[in-house]
Amino acid sequence: MAFPLGAPTQSTVWYSFMMPKQHPRRRSRSIQIGSVAIGGGAAISVQSMTNTDTRDARATLAQIERCAQARCDLIRCAVPDMAAAEALKTICAESPLPVIADIHFDYTLALAAMEAGAHGLRLNPGNIGSRDRVRAVVSAARERRVPIRIGVNAGSIARPLARRVDAGDMALADAMVESALEHVRILEEMDYDQIKISLKASDVRTTIDAYRALADKTPWPFHVGVTEAGTTRAGTIKSAVALGILIEEGLVDTLRVSLTAPPEEEVVVGREILKSLDLIAGGHRFISCPTCGRTEIDMTPIAEAVERYLIQTDPPLTVAVMGCVVNGPGEARHADVGIAGGRGQGILYRKGKVIRKVPESELASALIREIESILAEGEETQ
Length: 382
Known about the structure:
The chain is of the alpha/beta class. The protein has helices spanning about 55-70, 80-95, 105-115, 130-145, 160-165, 170-190, 205-215, 230-250, 265-275, 300-315, 330-335, 365-375; strands spanning about 30-35, 35-40, 45-50, 75-80, 100, 120, 150-155, 195-200, 220-225, 255, 285-290, 320, 335-340, 345-350, 355-360. It has two domains: about 30-275, Alpha-Beta Barrel (TIM Barrel); about 285-375, Sulfite Reductase Hemoprotein, domain 1, CATH 3.30.413.
């Protein structure tokens, strides 16, 4: 089936120190959630979801601010009842990020969320009742240009499809695709054109297979992630594998890394995945060695202190924290600024030149001061 697709509306952006290298992207329609474009060639955005009680607007806004500081692009909030929808009025008015309302079953919550100023909805039209109810939501969303995300998880596919999966007659990934398309058809039949789709499983292979299977069946942009991925360690690994593959195949328009962790941690991991594929403009690039028996300084606290600073400030620099004299000097010289450890001390480098020797206890602070000096002087980076 052919779909009319517009030309890309926004080019993907890249690190300033990298030569441009265009990855092929699946062509999709463009939608707009607040100030953030999704699909149509727009840069891949990173989003997260608050885990506060949405009815507590102050706590929710504080968490959104932390996500914004971590360079989040979009934030989603659960709306389980009318009190939460009412709190969205304050949240949407004061949030530094576009707010997506997460709605299940009750169409009146979707209407109230849009009235409160939500920039997007996460809602499956097949789960909110009659066509009249769906039509009411679509009418309000069309009036406000509020996109709707169809979200299908492996654990929430339609019952007839679930029975086929259980019977071995259908692959889980294919059932997820068909379940999503059932919801999408409802909106398409109402001529609604602000749609994005997610197909998430806790299993990496199922997630990948589902997005691949859907890619040529619809023109709508994809929200991608591994759902219930796990704790920071396990979830980061699973998400990096799935997202890395799907990004390289051009199937990601916006992403969320779902972790059993504060939402700002999800943002940091998501951005690092994009950075590793050279898909974020500017910002820092952090290099630190894994340490070995040659290391004669305590690397871990130094690297962690520098990383915390870089996450908070995100300077457009390549920063290296290296532990010994084998690879350390070379990596540090190739960075904008870096250190290479020795016995109880280290050498501070800037733009390939040795600045001075620094005692181990002062290495992190000396490196941070050098970064701040570069930024203050406006020196051109690599």
